[in-house]
TrEMBL record:
<keyword id="KW-0456">Lyase</keyword>
<keyword id="KW-0812">Transmembrane</keyword>
<dbReference type="GO" id="GO:0009190">
    <property type="term" value="P:cyclic nucleotide biosynthetic process"/>
</dbReference>
<protein>
    <recommendedName>
        <fullName>Guanylate cyclase domain-containing protein</fullName>
    </recommendedName>
</protein>
<dbReference type="GO" id="GO:0016020">
    <property type="term" value="C:membrane"/>
</dbReference>
<dbReference type="GO" id="GO:0000166">
    <property type="term" value="F:nucleotide binding"/>
</dbReference>
<keyword id="KW-1133">Transmembrane helix</keyword>
<dbReference type="InterPro" id="IPR001054">
    <property type="entry name" value="A/G_cyclase"/>
</dbReference>
<dbReference type="GO" id="GO:0035556">
    <property type="term" value="P:intracellular signal transduction"/>
</dbReference>
<dbReference type="InterPro" id="IPR050401">
    <property type="entry name" value="Cyclic_nucleotide_synthase"/>
</dbReference>
<dbReference type="InterPro" id="IPR029787">
    <property type="entry name" value="Nucleotide_cyclase"/>
</dbReference>
<dbReference type="Pfam" id="PF00211">
    <property type="entry name" value="Guanylate_cyc"/>
</dbReference>
<dbReference type="GO" id="GO:0016829">
    <property type="term" value="F:lyase activity"/>
</dbReference>
<keyword id="KW-0472">Membrane</keyword>
<feature type="domain" description="Guanylate cyclase">
    <location>
        <begin position="1"/>
        <end position="89"/>
    </location>
</feature>
<keyword id="KW-0547">Nucleotide-binding</keyword>
Length: 100
């Protein structure tokens, strides 16, 4: 499964400036890894026999965003930056953050 996050969309005034967006998305990435570690520690303590992994990829660039669909609406992102971010994620080691 994949989860795509975009900082600064749909309102770029919420996180003003490239630095603020970069810090926000990086903080989220570290939080995702930490939460997964906590979930796995709880799973191990309860002897559930389940280990979950998260791979994180970060890339910055322009994207086109919009709502697509006729019966089932979905907010979607597309563009070179989105494709690069997906590749960064797929190249990342589990529990790590891969940044371009």
């Amino acid at each position: 499964e994949y989860y795509m996050v975009a900082a600064g969309l749909p309102d770029p005034d919420v996180l003003v400036g490239d630095r603020q967006r970069a810090l926000a998305i990086t903080a989220l990435a570290f939080s995702m890894v930490q939460v997964m570690d906590i979930i796995n520690a709880e799973s191990e303590m309860r002897d559930l026999g389940v280990t979950l992994q998260v791979q994180v990829g970060i890339h910055s660039g322009e994207a086109i965003a919009g709502i697509i669909g006729h019966k089932r609406f979905q907010y979607d992102l597309c563009g070179d930056a989105v494709n690069t971010a997906a590749r960064m994620c797929s190249y990342s080691e589990p529990g790590c953050i891969n940044v371009s």
